[in-house]
# Entry
Amino acid sequence: MTIELFLFYMAATVALVSTILALTRYNATHALIYLIISLLASAIIFYLVGAPFAAVLEVVIYAGAIMVLFVFVVMMLNLGSSEDDQEHQWLKPGMWLFPALLCLILFLEMVYVLSVPPHALSGVVITPKEVGIKLYGPYILAVEIAAMLLLAGLIGAYHLGRRYLVDARKQR
Amino acid sequence: MEAVVIPMEHGLALAAVLFSIGLVGVMVRRNIILILMSVEVMLNACGLAFIVAGARWSEPDGQIMFMLILSIAAAEVAVGLGLLLQIHRRVGSIDVDETSRLRG
# Structure
């Protein structure tokens, strides 16, 4: 078995294990930690199959922006038991030991992958330049549709996030 | 031009398994945050399938589809979390069984 295949199966195992663990947690914060690890494992897989730009987007947007939104909402709702109890639970070593182990595997893979030239790993690497040329050439209509979708999402989130929707209902 | 060393079938199988985990999560979990996270897992699995298939033919189309999925996920999660905050304010809980007034 070559080293590329080994790295791929390692990252795939980490992705599967962390996804299963994420969706079986009772505590939303612990689930988020495992989900972020799953997304980082996906980013490693993207890099291994020759899509470095998608790997960067996965880390920056998925694991960075979208998951931070989740963390923000979970912290805002302040679910569950009292804060002292929660913080006591968070500081137990068992809660962060396994996520840290999964992260360590991914980190070692990343260090190895970045230390060898990219052509040694996968046969063909699709550079961001090719993606950009195609994205703003034949796919320009898709870009505009995505822009409209994001605008609709922005307006929807703004409308749903307003506080006086509830206040107006209470006054009735 | 040498071929991609990682077999496409295994990548697609991984995407299918991740999608199934997300689907089971949507159906089993009753916490809205966990349901939204399951939807994210499903969208990520779709993106993985596109990337692996795009790498198989070494075309950038797969990555472009992944970027479109990314924008869908961003819009979905913004609206979904807005809905979640409204439900939490009105019902006082984030259990979907509590919000069953539409059932009739």
